[in-house]
Specification:
It is a single chain. This protein folds into two domains: about 140 residues, 3-Layer(aba) Sandwich (Rossmann fold); about 140 residues, Dihydrodipicolinate Reductase, domain 2 (2-Layer Sandwich). Helix 6 packs antiparallel against helix 10, helix 7 crosses helix 8 and helix 8 crosses helix 10. The N terminus is likely disordered. The protein has ten helices and 15 strands. Helices cover about 35% and strands about 25% of the residues. The chain has about 350 residues and is of the alpha/beta class. Strands 7, 8, 9, 10, 11, 12, 13, 14 and 15 form a nine-stranded mixed beta sheet that branches. It is globular. It binds nicotinamide-adenine-dinucleotide (NAD).
């Protein structure tokens, strides 16, 4: 996993937020093929040098210093006051603090060359838009950690779709859990990447309040994507039972199944049945498309490295992530209206029963 082609100075990097995605998920793994966190990936990618970590939690700071052998600070101001001024800052604090910490980074006096912000950009569209406009006004490049856009298997699917390998798309289905903003946004963004921009949103089901991830609703909804306005149905599953992250795309000549969050991707072509004369079905076997999801975070930094060293375009930017936020906001607004209507209908119904 070395980038032998480039031999210049490493890119200096700091991680702000040393929680699950910042440092925790692969902290204890001994499998070098598993790279799921920012700190883990930055340590393993030879093009980068970790120069600092930031977290108000002293235990996290101690863990960081022990493994990564560089200083951790309780807040950004303390890091900057020590003249640690990284080329890359990774922002992986809880979503509710993204807008505030993002602004602090961009108004601190030290501007990084690039800021990698966790997804979703913020809790709502207005904050997200203000963040991206601020970054643009300061000339700082924004990458957003919608990890699938960086993963080779996902890119392969995009190639297959653009070469019409499964024919004209009929419909698609997404199963998501753990909230529209938190996880639905991953798949809205992925469908943008595969099919193009979104239009015509419809709510199909209100979701379950007991299933809700904090304030984040989990409606079932339909979005039409791309020039051909392909209908993609998003269905929410209950995270407390198990996590679901699945996509099915059904075309005229085959189908693509993106399973278990992307740990398995299968392309099935249509074949004539050897049993039922004249019938055509999806082939039993299917072709596996290689996926690198287990070390996806390495690919994120590989793209950032190539962007900084040779100007290669980033697949996930502030603007692409803002487009996903716009869809999330529209779905949420429609859901709110329908939920209010549903409540008032229920109240009317209850009153009618009491009279
Ligand atoms: N891209 C992905 O696939 C993916 C996966 C998981 C999480 N995420 C996103 O990453 C973000 C963090 O999620 P998580 O699961 O790691 O959360 P977490 O709660 O495990 O970690 C957040 C960390 O940030 C620290 N923190 C809080 N406020 C801070 C501040 N002002 N400055 C510095 N550190 C601060 C906390 O102490 C904690 O250690 C969320 O936005 C989430 O949506 C993305």
């Amino acid at each position: 996993m070395k980038s032998a082609k480039y031999s210049s100075e490493p890119i200096t990097a700091a991680v702000v937020g040393l929680g699950s995605i910042g440092m925790g998920l692969d902290y204890d793994t001994t499998d070098s093929g598993v790279i799921l966190t920012h700190c883990g990936a930055l340590q393993k990618h030879s093009g980068f040098k970790l120069v600092g970590g930031v977290d108000p939690d002293s235990q996290k700071r101690a863990q960081f210093e022990k493994k990564f052998r560089c200083e951790a600070f309780p807040d950004l101001a303390s890091m900057f006051s020590k003249k640690i001024e990284p080329d890359l800052i990774v922002l992986s604090v809880p979503t509710k603090s993204h807008a505030q910490e993002f602004r602090k980074i961009l108004t601190s006096g030290h501007l990084p060359k690039i800021l990698l912000c966790e997804k979703p950009l913020a809790e709502n569209f207005a904050d997200s838009k203000a963040m991206i406009e601020l970054a643009e006004s300061k000339g700082v490049t924004i990458a957003v950690n919608f990890v699938r856009r960086f993963e080779p298997g996902v890119k392969k699917v995009r190639d297959l779709l653009s070469h019409d390998v499964i024919g004209g798309l009929q419909k698609g289905l997404v199963w998501y859990s753990k909230g529209l903003l938190n996880n639905g946004s991953h798949f809205i963004d992925l469908l943008h990447f595969w099919l193009g921009s979104a239009a015509e949103i419809e709510i199909c089901g209100l979701g379950h309040s007991s299933n809700r991830f904090g304030e984040d609703p989990d409606p079932d909804f339909l979005v039409r994507f791309g020039n051909s306005l392909t209908p993609i149905y998003f269905l929410s599953a209950c995270e407390k039972h198990f996590s679901m992250r699945e996509v099915e795309l059904i075309g005229e000549k085959g189908a693509i199944y993106y399973r278990r969050g992307g740990m398995e991707i299968i392309h099935h072509s249509v074949e004539f049945s050897s049993l039922f004369q004249g019938y055509q079905f999806l082939g039993d076997e299917g072709k596996k498309i290689q996926t690198e999801l287990a070390r996806v975070q390495w690919f994120v930094f590989e793209h950032i490295f190539k962007h900084l060293k040779s100007g290669e375009a980033l697949p996930s930017t502030g603007r692409t992530a803002l487009a996903a936020m716009e869809v999330v906001e529209k779905v949420k607004n429609q859901w709110k209206q329908q939920e209010q209507l549903h409540h008032s209908q229920q109240q009317t119904h209850r009153k009618a029963l009491q009279n």
